[in-house]
Amino acid sequence: DAKTTQPPSMDCAEGRAANLPCNHSTISGNEYVYWYRQIHSQGPQYIIHGLKNNETNEMASLIITEDRKSSTLILPHATLRDTAVYYCIVRAPRETSGSRLTFGEGTQLTVNP
Amino acid sequence: NAGVTQTPKFQVLKTGQSMTLQCAQDMNHEYMSWYRQDPGMGLRLIHYSVGAGITDQGEVPNGYNVSRSTTEDFPLRLLSAAPSQTSVYFCASNPRGSGSGTDTQYFGPGTRLTVL
Description:
The complex is a heterodimer of chains A (113) and B (116).
Chain A: E1 9-13, E2 18-23, E3 32-38, E4 45-50, E5 55-56, E6 61-64, E7 70-75, E8 84-91, E9 107-112
Parallel strand pairs in A: 1-9
Antiparallel strand pairs in A: 2-7, 3-4, 3-8, 5-6, 6-7, 8-9
Chain B: E1 4-7, E2 10-13, E3 19-25, E4 31-37, E5 43-51, E6 54-57, E7 64-66, E8 76-78, E9 87-94, E10 106-107, E11 111-115
Parallel strand pairs in B: 2-11
Antiparallel strand pairs in B: 1-3, 3-8, 4-5, 4-9, 5-6, 7-8, 9-10, 9-11
């Protein structure tokens, strides 16, 4: 799995868009980009994933650069409840070996009132 | 669906005691995993299973046993608790399938374990 690099912390004002970057310059062609978050004292929560096209769901948007070496998770209107650690994970699908997500240190996003 | 459930939520053990952390899921997922998270750190994989009757070791398996007799349940056993096992334990499940969905994991609320 490709290594990812994220800033350790970011701040965002409530109601504004939060843009969380992730670098994955060694990503391979079959590796997907996944985003999870962990709100304090809770289990991690899946947010979104993508291969090369931009993706959007009810929680967030994922923008992947054309060369796939970096991506940005966008929370369009951040709320105080979005304060969490956000993890960017790059991984190729595996049919038989199970899922062994490797969580790095992530980005601590703090949404301020 | 209840999703992934874990019991107990909190547990205090003395060194040398044994116990089992319970994990169940009602989504008919084939894959299940156990992670531990120490204060201020990321999650580390302890054991995982790709289906009933099949388990394998993760990054930090020492001191833990698992079994998978049914699709729904994946208990984690601490054989002889040590203070180094004080941590928060998360269970997760995800569906097996081709394509991109294999790593969309669903996590339980966690069990906070203290070993004195």
